[in-house]
């Protein structure tokens, strides 16, 4: 309903009951299908929740595996009996000691501890390849002098999540990379409170993404959990931006008993800007006003952020917002009206570490983005293949990097399954609603390397339509594949994907010379048959290299020399494509991928990084850094 308030019907009836199919690996009827599902239509959005007061629930949690999912169904598929219900609000040790008719084959309060957020994959060697259900438990003290509203807000939990507070069911969520929240005001009690979370990482043919990808499926609670506190009526969502007409626009929605006809006031610190208004009967406020002349526009070179406040009754919503415009004109991408070339690289959400757990702290985000901004002289990052932590997009805002943001509609999803489409649409909406206030984000991507078919085209066109409805201020793209002319003497590629017509930017992944037998020397002569009036981004190209492995003469695959030469020749090729307006090669850092098992070079790591997992730069790093340094000095067409 929240989105619908802005955009008429959004997901509408599609969502009703749709998720049952998506969780078919789980018991047909279980808490994973029966608890209320949190979506953009049904749950609080709590936009900019990270700027709100609250209790940080990061830290030590008890955890326990449940590989046969006994906590959600008995062995004949029936509802679990009391002895299996992980969320019960009881003291297992005490109960067992007091009554020998009782039986519990779990005791979360006395089980192992792990620090959240962080994936269980890195918690112990035997969890490395565990894909299934894990239960988490922690206690916290009731906030003193409780009043107003309390929300349990999750930055992300991968993949399906069920939540209980003090033994009571709260809700569930599907999707591993976007935030969700529940109003738990009425479930809290004085003194000790208990939270139990079940997280199931198993992918099915119906999930987004499906089981086959090229990255490690980091199960668990991978981002912050916070008990957010607000007044009874609060600003649930707000979007503040600079329009292409040079105005500051705001869309806000209040939730609570005093949401209707509420006086509201938007201020931008440091600017003569003070916009007053009143919400309508649904608690919505939409307004625009001329941007002050003194407004400094956000650019990668000068990433100016303003403290923005929206006062509404007892609540004050805060964010730090950069003001800029982004648009396409013919084959150009215009940032603040001026052509820009996107000097970028792709990235997975993995910190620089020997055993990453997907813990994106501000320091970890700065270390990664610093390699792009300062090391490579970049101005752009493709956050592939799913929404990254809000810490990452905030850090990109602060450091001055343009961002490509993506949903994990990757390779082969169930194009004809309505519940898969509903999941993808909700994920996309959660991502957009979370990050619409980030100046860094300039491109919403709806898919990566998906095979053309009528069902796939219809699926992706629905997503493109959603983007345009939720955020017409940014550009839409998807990483596409091209057709190769097998008879041609030189590598000849044609953009034959009909989806290119629907996108603002044509983005292409190309691996000629790595996955094809082309000689690197032939790449610069490649022929690209592409739309002449749209910007092109080479959204991927890359080659594996094991840091420290050299083959100066033979130029063997997996050597640093091969990777460096692959970059030289591919960049030479790219420079000859007249519509090229950006690149985001594959990839900044080596990343975990269980499909990569060459024992000499990979051992579970995709080695296409320009830096190793611990941050060692390979030769190709300086090839790209020099290319970007040169590009930065050139006019952008
Ligand atoms: C691709 C995929 C990316 C893979 C990469 C590779 O085309 O988009 O997810 O990791 O190639 O290394 O093969």
Structure characterization notes:
- This protein has 637 residues and is α/β, with parallel strands linked by helices.
- The protein has 3 domains: 8-227, Galactose-binding domain-like (Jelly Rolls, Sandwich), CATH 2.60.120.260; 234-323, Immunoglobulin-like (Sandwich), CATH 2.60.40.10; 327-633, TIM Barrel (Alpha-Beta Barrel).
- It contains 10 helices and 33 strands.
- It has an 8-stranded parallel β-barrel, surrounded by 5 helices.
- The protein is globular, with a radius of gyration of 25 Å.
- The relative contact order is 0.11.
- Bound molecules: (2S,3S,4S,5R)-3,4,5-trihydroxy-6-oxo-oxane-2-carboxylic acid.
- Residues 1-27 form the signal peptide.
């Amino acid at each position: 309903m929240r989105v619908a308030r802005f955009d008429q019907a959004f997901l509408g009836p599609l969502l009703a009951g749709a998720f049952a199919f998506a969780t078919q690996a789980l018991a047909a009827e279980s808490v994973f299908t029966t608890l209320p599902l949190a979506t953009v239509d049904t749950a609080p959005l709590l936009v900019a929740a990270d700027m709100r007061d609250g209790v940080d629930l990061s830290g030590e949690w008890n955890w326990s595996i449940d590989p046969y999912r006994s906590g959600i169904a008995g062995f004949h598929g029936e509802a679990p009996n009391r002895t299996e219900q992980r969320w019960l609000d009881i003291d297992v040790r005490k109960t067992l000691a007091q009554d020998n008719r009782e039986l519990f084959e779990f005791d979360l309060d006395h089980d192992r501890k792990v620090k959240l957020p962080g994936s269980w994959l890195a918690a112990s060697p035997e969890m490395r390849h565990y894909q299934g259900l894990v239960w988490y438990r922690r206690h916290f003290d009731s906030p003193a002098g409780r009043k107003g509203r309390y929300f349990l807000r999750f930055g992300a939990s991968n993949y399906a999540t069920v939540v209980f507070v003090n033994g009571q069911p709260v809700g569930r969520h599907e999707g591993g990379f976007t935030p969700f929240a529940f109003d738990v005001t009425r479930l809290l009690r004085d003194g000790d409170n208990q939270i139990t979370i079940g997280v199931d990482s198993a992918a099915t043919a119906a999930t987004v993404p499906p089981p086959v990808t090229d990255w490690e499926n980091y199960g668990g609670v991978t981002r912050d959990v916070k008990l957010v506190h607000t007044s009874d009526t609060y600003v649930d969502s707000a979007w503040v931006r600079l329009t292409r007409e040079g105005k500051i626009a705001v869309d806000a929605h209040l939730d609570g008993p005093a949401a209707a006809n509420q006086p509201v006031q938007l201020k931008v610190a440091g600017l003569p800007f003070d916009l007053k208004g009143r919400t309508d009967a649904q608690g919505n406020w939409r307004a625009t006003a001329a941007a002050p002349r003194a407004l400094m526009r956000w650019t990668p070179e000068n990433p100016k952020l303003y403290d923005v406040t929206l006062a509404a009754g007892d609540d004050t919503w805060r964010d730090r917002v950069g003001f800029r415009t982004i648009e396409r004109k013919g084959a150009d991408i215009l940032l603040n009206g001026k052509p820009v070339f996107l000097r970028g690289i792709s990235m997975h959400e993995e910190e620089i570490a020997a055993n990453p757990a997907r813990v994106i702290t501000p320091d970890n985000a700065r270390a990664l983005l610093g390699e792009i901004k300062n090391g490579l002289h970049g101005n752009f990052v493709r956050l592939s293949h799913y929404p990254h932590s809000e810490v990452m997009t905030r850090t990109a805002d602060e450091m001055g990097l343009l961002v490509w943001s993506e949903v994990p509609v990757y390779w082969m999803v169930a194009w004809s399954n309505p519940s898969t489409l509903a999941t993808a649409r909700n994920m996309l909406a959660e991502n957009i609603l979370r990050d619409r206030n980030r100046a860094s984000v300039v491109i919403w991507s709806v898919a990566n390397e998906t095979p053309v078919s009528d069902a796939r085209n219809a699926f992706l066109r629905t997503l493109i339509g959603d983007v345009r409805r939720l955020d017409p201020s940014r550009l839409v793209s998807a990483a596409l594949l091209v057709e190769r002319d097998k008879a041609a003497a030189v590598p000849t590629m044609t953009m034959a994907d009909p989806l290119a017509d629907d996108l603002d930017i044509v983005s292409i992944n190309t691996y000629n010379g790595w996955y094809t037998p082309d000689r690197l020397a032939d790449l610069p002569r490649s022929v690209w048959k592409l739309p002449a009036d749209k910007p092109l981004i080479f959204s991927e190209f890359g080659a594996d290299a094991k840091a420290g492995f050299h083959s100066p003469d033979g130029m063997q695959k997996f050597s640093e020399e091969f990777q460096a030469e692959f970059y030289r020749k591919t960049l030479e090729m790219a420079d000859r494509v007249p519509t090229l307006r950006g690149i985001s090669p594959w990839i900044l850092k080596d990343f975990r991928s269980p499909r990569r098992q060459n024992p000499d070079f990979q051992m579970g790591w995709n080695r296409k990084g320009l830096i190793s997992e611990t941050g060692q730069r390979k030769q190709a790093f300086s090839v790209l850094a020099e290319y970007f340094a040169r590009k930065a000095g050139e006019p952008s067409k």
